[in-house]
């Protein structure tokens, strides 16, 4: 099965958005399948991240998936992301919906 998140997305159309305080991570790509990430503490996600330290802009690069999952709260995600990571919630906005209300 190919990785459904292997194609890089643009910052305004991420697969998922995680937040922690004023930090926001937009997940643009993953390098492994979710089940393979569980076995690899160094699994990476390509992200666009911003905080007060980036003065409203985004810094792009790879971040360990475990760090984002440990410190961030899932704020928005595509239905495919929720299914692949086994996340069940009554309602979670898609990244597009979240970006419209939090821009």
Topology readout:
Elements (H helix, E strand, L loop, with lengths): L15 E5 L2 E8 L3 H4 L6 E7 L8 E6 H7 L1 E5 L1 H6 L10 H8 L1
Antiparallel strand pairs: 1-2, 1-5, 2-3, 3-4
Principal-axes geometry comes out as: globular
Number of strands: 5
Q: How many structural domains are formed by the residues?
A: 1
Please report which band the strand proportion falls in: under 5%, 5-15%, 15-25%, 25-35%, 35-45% or over 45%.
25-35%
The helical percent reads 10-25%
Task: Report the biggest beta sheet as strand number plus sense, adding barrel if it closes.
Answer: 5 strands, antiparallel
Oligomer: single chain
Rg is 13 Å
N- and C-termini, Cα separation: 35 Å
Q: What value does the average pLDDT take? A: 93
Tally of helical segments? 4
SSE succession:
EEHEEHEHH
Spans of at least 5 consecutive residues whose pLDDT stays below 50 are none
By secondary-structure content and strand pairing, the structural class works out as alpha+beta
Strands of the largest sheet, in order across it? 4-3-2-1-5
Q: Could you please describe the fold and organization of this structure?
A:
It is built from 4 helices and 5 strands, in the order E-E-H-E-E-H-E-H-H. With 103 residues, the protein is α+β, with helices and mostly antiparallel strands. The protein has one domain. The chain has a 5-stranded antiparallel sheet. It is globular.
């Amino acid at each position: 099965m190919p990785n459904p998140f292997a194609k890089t997305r643009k910052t305004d159309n991420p697969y998922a958005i995680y937040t922690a305080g004023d930090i926001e991570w937009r997940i643009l790509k993953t390098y492994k399948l979710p089940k393979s990430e569980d076995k690899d503490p160094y699994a990476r996600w390509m992200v666009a991240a911003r905080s007060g330290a980036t003065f409203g802009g985004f810094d792009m690069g790879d971040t360990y998936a475990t760090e984002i999952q440990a410190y961030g709260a899932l704020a928005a995600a595509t239905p495919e992301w929720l299914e692949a990571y086994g996340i069940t919630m009554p309602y979670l906005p898609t990244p597009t919906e979240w970006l419209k209300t939090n821009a």
